[in-house]
Structures are given as structure tokens and as C-alpha cells.
Amino acid sequence: MSVLIIFIQKAIVQGMGILFGALGEILTEKSGNLNLGIPGIMYMGGIAGLMGAFFYEKAAETPSPLAGMLISLICAFACAVIGGLIYSILTITLRANQNVTGLALTIFGTGFGNFFGGSISKLAGGVGQISVSTTASAYSARIPVLSKIPVLGDVLFHYGFLTYAAIISAVVLSVFLFRTRRGLNLRAVGENPGTADAAGINVTKYKYLATCIGAGIAGLGGLYFVMEYSGGTWTDNGFGDRGWLAVALVIFAMWKPLNAIWGSILFGALYILYLYIPGLGRAMQEVFKALPYLVTILVLVVTSFRKKKENQPPAGLGLPYFREER
Fold it and tell me: Which residue of 76, 160, 234, 288 has the fewest C-beta atoms within 10 A of its own C-beta?
């Protein structure tokens, strides 16, 4: 297999977890909420999915890969939704600052994941002994026949279930936002909640739903890294800065889910590029890891100068809305 094909595969593998996080944040930001807790929510989703699979495999005499996959999916999504609900209650109902709340949620989620990751490790018999290989095998299963096609199969069909789920989610989210009535209502809430409220749209409901469901989608990004990328194992702080890359990808994709698909692959490629350049010192490796952020800044500068409405963030992003002050 050529180095180029391997590089493309690795870029896609790196990008899909970031894509989940970005899609969740796009949905959230379209409602006007800025959730900087996405990195922590990804940790919550990852550890919750692993815990669900671990206790299922521990209790079942003959664990089923499909049952383990379903349980881990439900646990990851539900735990991430709870994280989104906490954020919603604090910022929408209790009027807490969105930036501070999001950063606090990231710190909490990261600690939550690492704490319970260590706890599960002790239950499993010691540090490094966590393994849900039965469940992970369902996530890593390749598409029959198509994955065997030379070159094309290696590039397009060599991935697990969640990779294709991420791409399908991006398409579905794009259709929802730009082709449905509820998507239009949601975008109206994000642009001008006062006007949306006057038009009879329940602003609070849309903000809560978008933030909670968006958090659930982001949580699947954490599950992806645990199950498909890491093969059903947990490593403390193993996600690195991928959660922040997901937030950066939202800007790079200009709040468009379809742009996030190829953007996530580009980010994945830039993130691992240093591994394919021989002779780089430690300092230069860190510079190359920062490339996704530098590209995002460049896109942000260019779009700011062009000032096209469709490429700008929602006008009400990060601004609290209280009906009695309308």
C-alpha cells in the first residue's frame, strides 16, 4: 500500500471525531449559543460509552458485539446530552456567562473522563487493563466486498461504522438547517431571537433542543476516539486538543455542515503531516500541529473582509436573550 493511501486513511481517521464535535457545535451555534464546553462533552461521551460497554461485557456470559455497540452509543449520547442540558440550564435559564460556563464544562468533562477512566481501570485489574474488544470489533468492522476493492476500497471503504455515521450526520444536518421549516426557525432564533419570538417561535425550546442534541452529537466524537480510533481502550487526556480543533472547524467550515466534511479531513491531514516529514525537531512538530488553527485564522480574516452574510456567524451568537427584556 502506497504512502499516499496510508496518509489519506490516517487523515480521514483523525478527522471524523473532529467532524462529530464540529457538527454538534454548528447545531448549537445556529441557535445563538456558543458552547465552548464541546471538548469536555466529547470526553464525557467517550468515557460514558466505554463504561456502558465495559459493564455490559463484564455482566454478560457471551457478550454480543452489536448489543455492546448499541449500549455504548446510548450511554455516550445520553451522557453528552446531560452535559448540554447542564450548559443550557446555566446559560439560558440562570443567565450565566456562556464563555465561562463552556470553559468550566470543558474542565469538568475532561476531569470526569479521566477520573472514571482510572476507576474503570482499577476494576479491570490495573492501569492499562481496560479493554472492550468485543464491542470495539463492531465499530471497526469493514464494509464487506467493497473494502476489498484495490485502492478505491482502501480509500473509501476501509473504515468503521462511525466514520460513515459522521458523514451521513453532516448531510442530514445540512438538509435540516437549509431545507426544512424547523431549520429555518432555528436559524432565525440564532440571528435575531427577539424577532423570532415576536413571530411565534419558542426561542427557549429551540435553544435547549439545539444545545442538548448538539452536545449529544459531539459526544459521539468522543465515542469515536475511544471505540474506532483507539480500539476500545481509554487513555487519560488521550483526545489531546481535538475538541478545540472541532470548535475551530466550525469557523473554518463557515457554519456549513457539508463544508465540515472535507474540512475535517483537511484538519486530520494537517494534524498528522509532521509524521510524514523526516528530520523535524520537537519544536517544528508543534508548529505543524498548529497548522489547523493557523488555517482557521486565515479563513476567518478572509471571510471578515468579504462580509458575505452566508459566511458569517449567526448575528445573535453568544448573546443572551431574555424575553422580558425584549
Answer: 288
Residue 277 gets which letter from DSSP?
S
d(CA 38, CA 57): 29
Handedness of CA 68, 220, 178, 180 (dihedral sign): positive
271-277 CB contacts, 8 Å cutoff, 24+ apart: 271/14, 271/245, 272/7, 272/10, 272/11, 272/14, 276/3, 276/7
Q: What pLDDT is recorded for position 123?
A: 67
Which triple of cell numbers denotes residue 29?
451555534
Closest CA to 221 of 9, 66, 26, 22: 22
Select from 247, 204, 222 the least CA-distant residue to 23: 247
Three-class DSSP category at 3: helix
SS3 281: coil
Q: How confident is the model over 15-47, as pLDDT tens digits? A: 999 999 999 999 999 999 999 999 999 999 999
Element (H, E) at 48: helix 38-59
Q: What is the pTM of this model?
A: 0.94
Give per-residue burial for 148-164: e unless 16+ CB within 10 Å, then b. eeeeeebeebbbbbbbe
Q: What whole-number distance in Å separates Cα of residue 20 and Cα of residue 227?
A: 14
Q: Cα dihedral angle (289, 294, 297, 302), rounded to 10 degrees?
A: -140
